[in-house]
Amino acid sequence: MKDVFARLASDFLSAIVFLVIYLATDNVILATSVAIAGALAQVIYARVKGHKLGYMTYASVALVIVLGTVTLLTNDPRFMLAKPAIAHFAIGAIMLKRGWMLRYMPPMVVETAPEYVTAAGYAWAALMFVLGAGTIAVAATGDLKLWAFYISAVAGGAKALAFAVQYVVFRLVVTSRRRAAARA
User: Fold this and answer.
1) Is a pLDDT exceeding 80 seen at residue 3?
2) Predicted TM-score of the model (pTM)
3) Residue 172 burial by CB count (10 A; 0-12/13-18/19+): exposed, middle or buried?
């Protein structure tokens, strides 16, 4: 689990750097420039150390460079703020693959309620699209505090709640079906 959080922090390091510097200085040019330089430095450092970088890291760096350049040209932070929406949309698109979630489930769930797992996979995809659209809507306001709240509390909270609901539903369905099978 620690490794997962380390990878997520690495993938979103430039967005975190941008946010911290922008909140501290209220200077879009400085925050964007440091975020772009940090993203490039992160890739260079990893290559020098011989670390293999994942697709998300390269995608994140590319987005930082493209959206950062547009932010620098327009002096408008909303382009950098929209970056998480692109990640949500990409992940949502991947989650549209039928049965993608089956490999992450315990065998008992896969054997007992595979149709629920497939439905949950589509529900997760829908959640990612909704959160991406919300991110764009909030980024369009240009309100950095609202954006930071949305990204951390709303988007993070929605994912945690979805996970909890999914866990409870799977547990109830599996338990119910196993009891019914034992009686039969």
Assistant:
1) no
2) 0.73
3) exposed
